[in-house]
Amino acid sequence: MATRWGLCGAGKISHDFSVALRTLPPQDHQIRAVASRSLERAQDFAKRHSVLEAYGSYEELANDPNIDVVYVGVLHTEHWRAGLLFLNAGKNVLCEKPFAMNSGQVKDLVNAARTNKVFLMEAVWSRCFPTYVEVGRRLREGAVGEVKLVKAYFGSPQLDIPRSVERELGGGALLDIGVYCLQFILMVFDGERPESVHATGVLLDSGVDESVVVVMKFSRKRMATCTFSIAVRLPNDAVISGTKGSIQVCRPMHCPTRLVVNDKVSEYPLPEPDLPLNFTNSTGLRYEAEEVRQCLLQGLKESPRMPLADSILLTEIMDEIRKQVGVVFSQDSQ
Question: pTM of the full predicted structure?
Fold first, then answer.
């Protein structure tokens, strides 16, 4: 039977997610419903993507008995509220990154998933890319020896996008794109908590971070650095350096199709979309959708590729970075 998806949000990422699902077999994945706060938007989306049901509220989607899993693709600031709604309605949930605005909210989501005995995953789609799977395999077989240093860069000029720069919309480089650098580092170091985190950055007038540099120290004298910015373009690759070699995840490091292991290049091409996409390499969202399907078929409540413990640690590190750089959201005092 097909995994029956419900989409919370009828915006750009839900569009790309729908296009990506159509690159998978229709007997495996089906979008049954889409919900928006605007019924008109939901209906337009449903028409464009041949979705059966269109709802003008998230509550209607939460109450739909024909949905196996809900994809939450709304503003960062809404993830916690929407996530809790679906989890408490007994729905499995794939929630866009960042999971929520702070680690307190993330722990609320995790607790709700465990209480209701449902599946929950933060949609760090990068982790499901064949390129990332290969990185993990090569690290386990010791292709670079002992990892000593990890570097990751992500810079994307987006100061003209309101959700990127306004504090009320959960803006800033860290929550939007810095999360990709940090999750990569945590993947390489197998979800280990760093011994220290040092961050410095510059803020926009709105109070959110424009550009940030982070240095982390891990056990056994291992280090990681990352730089992210919503003001400038950066190399946007990631490099793992070890005692016997190196791995470069070529740009764009968050959705890569090219890998260089000890100077040997591998390519992992993506399928072509049937409609124009809003974001780079978005047909790669197919990999996280298939990961969710496989987890549900196996009766798992979380994904081994992006475990909930990784999501909690990731957000705790982001909380610490915000504290050091001086970014405060209204959700921090709730």
Answer: 0.97
